[in-house]
Q: What sequence folds into this?
C-alpha cells in the first residue's frame, strides 16, 4: 500500500470513525489501513515488513479484546520508534497519556487540523533524519 505521504494505521472499533478518518487522511495524501482491536493491530504490524509498516498509529483507547493502552505498551516494546497518537473520548491528563507510551493524543470529536498538526510534527525529520523529540503533550501545536 503506497501513497505520497505514507501509510497511517487507524485502530478503532467503530467502523464509521475509521471510514470518516480514512477519507479525510486520504485527501491529505495518506493511505490508511485499519484494525478493530489491539490484537488485530499487533497481528498486522508483526506480519508487515519494515518498509510496509505504517508511519503512525492512531489508537483508540477503548476497544474490545485488547484496549489501546495495553496495545501501545506492547507496540512500544516491539516497535519502539513507531509514533502512536491516542484518539480518545475519555478524559486523560497529558502526563497519563505519556506514561502509557503514547507520543501524543487527540480527543474525540477529532479536531482534524489539530490532528494533522500532530501527525506532521511526529513525521518531521530533524537534520539527522530522525524523528523530532516530543514536545510537551497537550501543548497546542497550531
A:
Amino acid at each position: 500500500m503506497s501513497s505520497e505521504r505514507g501509510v497511517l494505521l487507524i485502530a478503532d472499533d467503530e467502523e464509521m470513525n475509521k471510514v470518516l478518518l480514512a477519507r479525510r487522511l486520504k485527501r491529505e495524501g495518506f493511505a490508511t489501513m485499519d484494525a478493530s482491536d489491539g490484537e488485530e493491530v499487533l497481528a498486522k504490524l508483526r506480519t508487515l515488513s519494515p518498509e510496509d509498516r505504517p508511519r503512525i498509529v492512531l489508537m483508540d483507547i477503548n476497544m474490545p479484546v485488547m484496549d489501546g493502552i495495553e496495545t501501545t505498551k506492547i507496540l512500544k516494546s516491539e516497535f519502539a520508534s513507531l509514533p502512536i497518537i491516542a484518539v480518545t473520548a475519555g478524559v486523560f491528563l497529558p502526563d497519563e497519556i505519556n506514561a502509557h507510551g503514547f507520543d501524543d493524543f487527540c480527543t474525540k470529536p477529532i479536531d482534524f487540523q489539530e490532528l494533522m498538526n500532530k501527525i506532521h510534527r511526529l513525521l518531521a525529520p530533524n537534520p539527522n533524519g530522525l524523528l523530532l523529540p516530543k514536545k510537551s503533550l497537550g501543548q497546542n501545536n497550531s
Summary: Confidence is low (pLDDT under 50) at residues 126-142. The chain has five helices and five strands. The CA atoms of residues 114 and 142 lie 7 Å apart.
